[in-house]
Amino acid sequence: MKNVATTDANPASPTECNGQALLFPELTAKTVTVDFAGGHVSSDGGGVLLARLDRSYGYLQRLATCFRDHRDPDLIEHPLLPLLRQRVYALALGYEDLTDHDQLRTDPLLASLCGKADPEGQARARERDQGKALAGKSTLNRLELTPADANAASRYQKIVADPAALEDYFIDEWVRSLAKDTREAVLDVDRTDVPVHGEQEGRFFHGYYDEYCYTPLYIFAGDWPVVAALHTAESEHREEILRLLGKIVQRVRGRCPKVRLILRGDSGFCREELMSWCEAHHVHYVFGLARNAVLERILRGSLRMAQSMLAFNHSPTERVFKDFRYRAKSWGRARRRVVGKAEWTTEGANPRFVITNLTPAEFPARALYETLNCARGNMENRIKEQKLDLFAQRTSTGTLRANQLRLWLSTVAYLLVNQLRRVGLAGTRLAQATCGTIRVQLFKIGAVVRVTARRVWVSLSSAFPWQALFAQVTGRLAAVT
Question: Which pTM value belongs to this model?
Answer without folding.
Answer: 0.91
